[in-house]
Structure formats: C-alpha cells, structure tokens
## 1
Amino acid sequence: MTDITRWKRPMMAAALSALALALGSPALAAGKKTLTAVMHSDLRVIDPGFTTAYITRDHGYMVYDTLLATDSNFKVQPQMADWKVSDDKLTYTFTLRDGLKWHDGAPVTAEDCVASLKRWGRNDAMGQKLMDFVASLEPIDAKSFALKLKEPYGLVLESIGKPSSYTPFMMPKRLAETPAGQQIKEQIGSGPFKFVQAEFQPGVKAVYEKNTDYVPRKEPPSWTAGGKVVKVDRVEWVTMPDAQTAVNALQSGDIDFMENPSFDLLPVLKANKEIQIETLNKLGFQTLGRMNFLLPPFDNVKVRRAAFLAINQKPVLDALVGNPEYYKICGAYFVCGTPLATEEGSDTLLKGTGLADAKKALAESGYDGTPIVIMAPGDVVTLKAQPIVVAQQLRDAGFKVDLQATDWQTVVTRRASQKPTKEGGWNMFFTNWVGADVMNPIANASIGGKGTKGGWFGWAEDAKIEQLKDSYARSTSPDEQKKIAGEIQKQAFEQVIYVPLGQYLAPSAWRKSLSGVLDGPATPIFWNIDKSE
C-alpha cells in the first residue's frame, strides 16, 4: 500500500464530516450570509506569533490588524497607525488612528502595540534584525509611541509593514507578554473578524464572524492595505483533505471558495462556467527542504552536502505541479525574476547531475546509516510530493530514510521540537514560502544563522551569514546589496542552510457568486468579498 493510499480513507471521512458540519451550521439555518472556504490546510495552531505556517498567518489576518501594511505597488501605508520620522532618521513616532478597539471592547493603546512589536521582534527574521538597531521602543502616551534607533536603518517601515509570516499583528499587552515558547491563551484582536472560539474544532472547522465594531480605513483595499470592509456575516473554514471531495463540493455549491485545488483537477474546474480560477499570489511560492542542524546525521556538513548533491528539482516539481505552466526550475535563494536573483551554486539541483558525487560524498562523510526521519504531511496538496520524491532521491544516494506519514499541523507543531528522533524529533521537513517572504536576506527567515538563539526551525548556526546579513541591512546601494546577497547564497549552498526546490504558482477557485476577491502576497483574505444569494 502506498503512502497516499494509507492517507486517503481517513481523509475522505474527515472531509465528509466537515461538510456535514458546515451544512448543519446554525448560522446557515438562521439565514446569515455565510462564506464557506476550504483552505490549504486545517487550522490547529492559532497563535500567529508562534509559527510561520501560512494557515496561522491567514487566521491572523482575520482576527488581528497591523500598524502598517504594504499595497500592490510595494509601498508601505498606514493601517492602524501613521508615522513621522525625525530629521536625523533616528526616531520614528507612531500615532494610532481613532476608533481602534479590541474585540473585548477595551481601547487599543500604545502600550499594547509596543508589547506586540517586541514579541514579533523576538520571532521574525526582519524583526530580529530591526531590533538589533533599536535603542528603545517606548510609549509616549495612550495613542503614540517612539521607536529610537542606534543608527539609521533603512528597513524600519518595510519590516513593520511586511505582509507575511511572521506578520507583526497587534494584540493586547497581556497576550503579547506571554512567555517565549508559550502560545497566547485568548484570540482577542482588533481586526475585521472575531474568532468564534465555541465553534472551533481543530482539524475540522474554524468560524469567524464580522466584527461590527471595526472601523475600516477609507482608502480602497490594496493587498493588505486600505479599507478592510467585511461584506458577509460569517466565514467558515472547513477541512477537506481529499481534493476530489472538495472539488465536488465547490461544483455543487456546498462550499464557495477553495484555496488550492490540486493541479490535476484544474481542467475539471475550468470546464465549469460557474467557477472562477485565478492565481491570487502573482509572486508565487518557493518550495524548500530544511534539515535539522542539531541532530545526527545532518549536524555534519559533509552529510548535508551529500544530501544536497542527491536532490534534483525537476522530479519534485513534476510530482508537485506537473504542468510547467505553473512551475519554474530555479536555483535562486532570493527568487528568480527579482533584482537579487542568481543561480550560482545550484547546478546539480537544476540539472540533476549530482547523484554520483552524492554517493561519493556520502561514503567519505562518515555517515553511519542513521535513518533520516522525514515528516511527510498528506493533507496539504502543495506539500505532499516533496518529501516522497526527495526521500527516494536520498535512498538512491545511499541514505536510509524513515518517511513518516503525518498531517501538516503536526509538522507545524513537531518541527519546533529539538529532541532526538526517538523522542519525537526529526531530521528533515518541507515547506513553502510566498515570494514576498524570501525576496531578500533580511526577510528570508530560512537563511539565518542564529542557531538555537532565535533561529528558524532546523537551527542553522553560521556566523558568516549573520555578518553578511548585517552588511546587507546597512547597505543603501542596490549594486552592493546584490553582491552581498550573492555571497550569502554562496555560503548558504556550501553549508546547505536549506535546499531550494523551485518556484510554483497556486491558483485558487471560487464560485462566481462571490465578488471582490482580492489578490496579494498574503492571500486569501476575506474582507471585501461579497456573496450573492
């Protein structure tokens, strides 16, 4: 029995159960305007400062708001706050706009926002780099606060206005001060929707209701900026891991929106005149493999190099996407088609010519046959193929591989563990980043070298990369930045900080009864969407 077959029956059962729950919703019976969506993953981790998982980021945009936001021209705009910059470029003063309230009715204060920024600054790569330059971050009064720098830093607004994980969402001070390593206990934001905790069934269903107290900005919506006007009463995310079941539900009208239809089913949806298909994130995704630097055998750079040489992008992308119209073989850490793109060092990834060298390197590395524990989620269309294909490529090179079937939310939780594999640890997992999250060395969380002191899952430790990132952050010359980014990529390939596996686009599908679906780098977002009956 294949891995896919083992997953299929329980997935079908879960999907049908979720659909029955959705159709039996008391909100539907009461006649509320309800939008039902199948997202790319089920939701279990609901603290947007605890994981970079996009389903948790998507949940964050429902419940929370941001101080600043980025529009479709890549320009940072006011959202919850406006700002002024001192003449010496060392002090940024932020002032909250009127009408901001938490979902429990309390006013949003500068103290809340300072605490939220500090929490975000501990976790996010851009936040960490920003905080390296911050001398102080303190409230001035109830509605304003000051961020003072040690020296001028050109990415202050871009960092606070970043659109994707970790997004700097604002929350009450009492939640923002939750100790590191712990998840917040409540879902209290100031965003356009309220989370319905009583109806939350992790892995099955998440429900959001319109926040009637929310005061949208007056500007038209643009990406995550502008007015967040909610036009439905309720949004329900239901879990349907089986792609065919979800497609059938979309075609029958039992659901309204499907974030990631599987690529092989797109022709079926295209033939249905009641369905709209569109790629909302035009920047696309980078897919990648990440090794655990703390545990054998990948604590040995020679073993990591052997694994890197064994990996070939094309079979991964063929299995993941299939249609070359939707994917691009690309060896650039900072995304092909951007100013920082270079494919230097990626030759074997792109051409698949490294297997013989991989076998030789593995034999010379001292590898003792320790099984490589790879977490393989079967419930997310865009993450099924990578672990299965790469596991076989590693086996072909001489590695022993333990491919462990699981679901994505278990991966999201388990990848935070630093324990040995026999105690729930891991050696390798795969994920996807939207292009906006990896376009430069400061935004790209996976490229860091901080190890266990603030590093991303896998805990790569590399002082040279951190020094180069610091130089990049201080540079104001595009030519110099490109040169530094190239040096970072060279070091990242030598140390195998992570393995870029190419780029792809992920179309979404929805019934034409929906209007106002917005595009952007952090989609889907559910304000501005209306539903005709």
## 2
Amino acid sequence: MNVADLVRRSAETAPDRLALIAGDRRLTWAELDRAVDTVAAALSGAGLVTGFRVAIALTNSVEFVTAYFGALRAGLVAVPINPASRAEEVAGFLAVTRARVVLTDGASVAAVRQAIRGHDGPLGHDGEAAPLVVPVGIAALAGERTYDEFLAAAASSPAVPPADPETLAALVFTSGSGGTPRTVMLTHRALLAGLDQMAAIEPPPMGTGDVVLGVLPFCHIYGLNGVVGLAARTAGTIVVVSRFDPEHTLDLVAAEKVTNIPAVPPILASWLRCDDLARRLASVRVLVSGAAPLPAGIRRGIQAATGLVVHEGYGLTEAAPVVTSTLCSADPSDPDQPKPGSVGAPLPGVQVRVVDETGADVEVGEPGEVLVRGPNLFSGYWPDATDAPGEDGWFATGDLGYLDEDGDLALVDRQGEVIVVSGFSVYPREVEELIAELEQVAEVAVVAVPDERTGAAVKAYVVPRPGQEVTAEAVLSLCRDRLARFKQPSVVQIVPELPRSVTGRVAKSRLRIAER
C-alpha cells in the first residue's frame, strides 16, 4: 500500500542485483533499501510527520531516488521540482505546496536560495518557517544543513508508512486543459495502479534482469513512475543519466548493455546524427517514445539505422502516466509495426472513450474529447482536490482524438494550447503575461513551432504599443532572466497586429498554421 514497499520487496527478492548505476557508484537493491530507510529516518528526525511535503529539486541521481522513496516510506508527500526552474518558479512551487524541506544540488541551489531569500511572505504561512534547505554535494550556507548532516540527524525510531492506499504520495506539476500550471495529487493507489498496468502489458516492457536507461528527468512523471517506479516494481537496474549528451549516452547504453530505453522524440532525433548507431544500441530490446508526438521521419530513421521498432504511447500526469501504448496493439496488416498515426490501445485496466460536446460517444473514426477511466487516475488538483474524475470515474483530458475500428487511439490536437518542449509543458499564458510586463508591449501571442531538436519550440508574436518600439532582444533578455530555459522563446517576431476571429479573440490557429 506504499510505493516505497516496492524497494523493500526488490531488496528481499533480489538483494544483490544492481538497482542503480550512476557513474562510479553502484547500489544493489539491498543497499538502496537501507539508504531509503536512512532518508526516511532523517526526514522524521527533522520533525516531519505524515502528510508534510518534501521538495526534491535534484537532477537525476542516487540522491533523487533515495529522497523520493525515503519521503514515501516516512509517510510524507514528495514534490519533484525541475532543477532547471527559475527562482520565481521555485518560489511559486514551494508556496503552493508549503514544503517543509527542499533538497537541492548544484543545478538548482541558486534558484532555491533566491526563491527563499526573496519571497519571505509566500513561503511562510501562518507563522511557519521557510523550508529547510538541504544542499546535496555542495556546501551549506547559514541556516541550511548539508545532506550528510541531515542524514546524521536521523531519528532512531523507524518511520511508519501510511496504511491507506488513498494517502497522498506525490504532488506533480502539470497543466490543465486551460493551459495554466496545476498541481496533480497522486496517491499511492494511483502510482501503484499505473505500475501494475504497465507490468500487465504482454510481453512486459520491463522485467527482472532488465537494464533501463534513466535519461528522462526523474522530476517528470514519465521518469518518476515510468522509470524509477517500474524498475522498483520489477527489480530492474537503472542507469542514471544526470545530463544528456548524445554521444556519451550512447556509449553508456553500449557499456552497460541497456535493454530498455524510454525516451522523448528529441533524444531519438539527436541520436540519428550519431555514427555507428546499430552497434551502440545492439543490446536494446524495447524502445519507447512518449511525452510528445513522434515524427514519422524519426521513427523510420531509427528503424532504418538499427532495426529497432520505436513504440509510442499517450499519457498524462493525471494518469500516472500511461494511458495507451502501441505495445498493446499492432497493425493487422503488419503485426511487427506500430500502426501509423496511432498512439496505441489502452493499457490493461484503463478505459478510453471519445465524446462530443454533449458527452455522447462519437462514432468510430470521429474526433472528440478523450476521456479516461481507471484506478491509476489522480485525486484532483491541489489543494482542494478540484476537477477530480467524476462520480462515474471518467476524467476529461482536454485532448482531442479518435478511436479506430481496432480500438486504437489517434490524437488530433489539444483543447488547450500547451507547448511540449523536450517532454516538458510550457504554458503560453505564463510566457505571454511575462512579456506583457514590458511597457512597450501592447499585445503578445505565444505558439508552438516545430523544432527538430526539442520536438517543439516557443515563438512569441509581439505587437508594440503605438508610438513605441520594442526589440526582440529586449523580450528575449526578459525571458532569459525570468523563465526556465525550455520555456524561453526561440524566436520573437515583432508584428503590427495579431490575427483575430470574428468574435475578436486572437486567432492563434492562424499563427500555428503559418509556422507549419
């Protein structure tokens, strides 16, 4: 009933099997289980009790994994934060979740410190102190506690895990259908159900003895449950990649004989530019792409270079995360190939419907809004569990798609306007509101443009105020200072006006069409 129990079970069934490979560091499942115990006891020793939140602003590392499972084992709520986030973003994450402890490393510590120093008000509610900062692998400042000091203060009594599967396990940031940032409440039940559903695929995408490439950010639900969680469930081995470099990562795949690669399209696109791809990926048996649409050219290129079939899936943070996968279906005309344009059939235990504006099921092949139902679904958005699945269990995703005659799903578009850059969501409204702070700006519209490296990129159309001048460099400079790198526009175009619909709203669809 606790996700961290998976680590304990793997330590009991396969104590000497490697759990983590991170550079020169190698931990078995037994060693990882003991490390998780230590972190859980340290969090309890810091005064945290059931339900308190622990922010994990770490790059992919041994410490991320032990902090995540340690928080859960202590009955706490894990709050993964993208370590590339800017200070203002971190301040917002900490304020909304009221985290009591923040684990940070060299990639995030400057933003974490600035967030806490510069935002005393939002981070201290009802007399609460600001979060305790715990730097990992770097020196601590006054008022902080190094990671080693934090572990040394571990409580002597073991943490008591929650007995209720509906206990909150993680708060993960994503977007709603309206494109505004939201905080998804995932219980132990939802995370475990998601893992059970992935494991029920035939043949299983990951099993005992498999070696999975941990290149997806663990702060993202795809990496958190699809890699870290699934490896714990199957006693697999994670090869931890803290920073993606195409050549180095391919060498790592070959050296560690990686068998499973969950990836995003930009990773696969970058590998197509590397030499000797077939030899370096020779150990791989399962290659899956997710988090963003996979261009057909990349799929064909990988298969031509290596013989590997790239499978694709559709998921949501709210679904922990996988909903459909081409691993669950096959094109009857060519069983060895994923069906063109499809993101596959629902996983075992997951139901999918496509409905029209009235909520009625549409005909096969007709587009509509995608609805999902299953035990893997979230409990609503923090803090009030708003917009949870309805009484009948169905959740409206905000995505548009259709089901074909075989029950496979194809996606058409998003009802919202979220831009997915390297698997991370960018909310146009957030970027637009920032750019609009420039006094020379009258209007701004942000849309996605194709990008061979990241799948999509951000483009801003900016209209100057009458009689004033605004430069692209001024806009880019503001965004570099205030936004995470993946959220920053790659292009800023100064235009005299924006296209509008008959109702006077900005017609972003016309801007998107112009960029195709």
